Amino acid sequence: MQYLVSVIHDKSNSGTAEEARAIDEFNNRLRAGGHWVFAAGLADPSTSTVIDGRGEEPVFTDGPFIEAKEHMAGFWIIDAPDLDVALELMADGSKACNRRLEVRPILDV
Amino acid sequence: MVASLAKRFGDLDIAEEAAAEAFATAVERWPADGVPPNPGAWLTTTANRKAIDRIRRENKRHDKHREALMLTDDAPPEPLGAIDDDRLRLIFTCCHPALAMEARMALTLRLVGGLTVPEIARGFLVQESAIGQRITRAKGKIAAAGIPYRVPSAQDLPARITGVLAVLFLVFNEGYLATGPDTDPVRADLTAEAIRLTRLIRELLPDDGEVAGLLALMLLTEARRPARVSAEGELVPLGEQDRGAWDAALIEEGHRLVRERLDSGVAPGRYQLLAAINAVHTDARDARDTDWSQVVALYDQLVRLDPSPIVALNRAIAVAELDGADVALAIIDRLGDALNGYHAFHVTRAELLRRLGRREEARAAYDRAIALAGNTAETAYLSRRRDDPG
């Protein structure tokens, strides 16, 4: 199964150099274990734009789509056979990036 | 059977329904065809077939994947020992930390305990539809999020067992001191089910000290149930209970478990200490014979494991017996900030103030306790204490 792991953060400052090093190390372990799919950090939520293409003409508005105290600062997509493996791996991921994480399964298509 | 089907097919709904269909088929066929030579194996085989039929019929998105799995899983029905392993897996799945605590309790009672949805709803005083939804949602999450049917790795096992025991202890407590007005103060169906499931876990994990500790704690608590509510429906405090009405067999079993843990020489965990405290209480023929220094010593150990204000409050109650109400009251008044919303804090304060002859303050504390208490028998007892001049 694949899981989206969102990094939950309540401030818009970026991580420290030490956190970045820890994340790199953690990512190398994910690759070595065959769990790596993709990961990225995200720019500040104030830089986002919301698209609504459900009508005839698409409407673009200043984001984020929801005002929240916490937002997604980055994410991983990992491959794990089940939730227990995903949770065990990402407990270390949370330690590495020093943030809380949310793990959510990706629907397979 | 549900457990082994769940493991094989990775889907609780399919497992439950296939098991039910197999029993229904048996009821239909056995009277006419005669009982097969090995009824258990017959049921398992039938349920397996029903499950496969169901999966084919439902033609789910994961159909191909499941069928591929089944094609490679040609193992014959598993021997009896493996059924226990399946039950253990099921318990760990139902008590998975990724599920909400309420969902864990409902799911465990439904799938491991075999209680019906109406029974669970009565136990927790919740609408049937709410319990049904809770269970459906939890099953949905188990399937969609990939919560595995597996006994956790050795590294995770202690934490996960703690999680399972927490679920069972909550179920027991809900039965033992039922919250909410208009209900029976003690709901024996829930306490009995919690004990049954804890016994099962002890059979499956006989070397785990905390499992033994929780079982002992439940047995020693349950043993006092006959003396716990008076004929008038009031809660009877430990010191005033008719000890002759206690269940001697349960006490004997609880004491045996506590002795076994003491003999093991392994440092006790929280449940073992609570069980030991209960063993001291149930060891005294008369409340006046209680070895309070032993109780305080056990609470001292417990405070080191769990420095929560609630443990400190319970320790203070024992201190009152050993060193006097004034010493205990001084300890308790330091806990006021943390426990102001907790009815037992005000009950304890009221009792100590009463003993010290500070009647006005005691009365105010009883009022506060009554306002916060949810249990009918407890409210009745507290109202009488408040108004009793003695």
TrEMBL record, chain A:
Gene3D superfamilies assigned to the protein according to its UniProt record, in alphabetical order: Dimeric alpha+beta barrel
Domain YCII-related: start-end pairs: 1-107
Domain of life: Bacteria
InterPro entries tied to this protein: Dimeric_a/b-barrel (IPR011008), YCII (IPR005545)
Signal sequence annotation: none
Family according to the record: Belongs to the YciI family.
Protein's name in the database: YCII-related domain-containing protein
Organism: Agromyces albus
